Amino acid sequence: MNDMSSERIEAMVIRKDRPAPQRPPMLAPGKLPRGTRLLGPLLVVVLWEAASRFGLLSPYTLAAPSTAVATGISMIADGSLLPHLAASAGRAYAGLFLGVVAGLVLALAAGLTRTGEALLDGLVQVKRAIPTLALIPLVILWLGIGEVMKVFLIFTAVLVPVYINTHAALRGIDMGHVELARTLGLTRAEFIRKVALPGALPGFFVSLRLAVTLCWTSLVVLELINTQTGIGYLMNRARDWGQTDIIVVGIFIYAVLGLLSDAVVRVIEARALSWRRSIGS
Q: Could you list the residue ranges that cross the membrane (predicted)?
């Protein structure tokens, strides 16, 4: 028995001394190397270009990406693109700003007070169920067919995701933090500034990423309604003349602006929520 136990002890010592097998390095959950998010879109563009070069796609059906890029450069050089781009950006970001501010205020009111919850949450949920396109005829009767109507509809479209996500984040704040605030005797304003707003930031940034994309997708349809300027107007006019290269230019502009807006929000989010990485490290 002693011999058997000594052999087991020696085997255990040998196993402990033996270096542990090296595991392949793994990425942290949710994180990808910089630039890999563009691999999918780039692959689609490459396949698209190849299909056009080999004659699988007719230029009358869909212009090649290289043709669209050349057309876009030509339109910038002759000054026919930038005024339309500025008009679209003005509409989109005006509606985005108003929608984000209103959504955040409504979420704070509904998430921090019972009266606000009772009065506001049902109204926003009703708006959530009504498509923005369904409101166009009514809003035209109210505001006409000018710029105000377009900005207002973008505003209503953006407001909903900002409210929903920020409100959910406020309602999901850890009760331990709430009890600690009561124990420390924080005032209402101090509680909002030190507990509620930091706790709602993750949900708010999720909503902001949705909003910066939604303001552009809403604008595409709205610029088809009695508009003489904007990327959507260019695309609609190009459709009438069968100019698929200009249509693709418009699609590229919307895609690039959406990606850039999302990237800016990501940078702001990383800086504003840097405390989460320091806690997790």
A: 92-112, 133-164, 204-225, 246-268
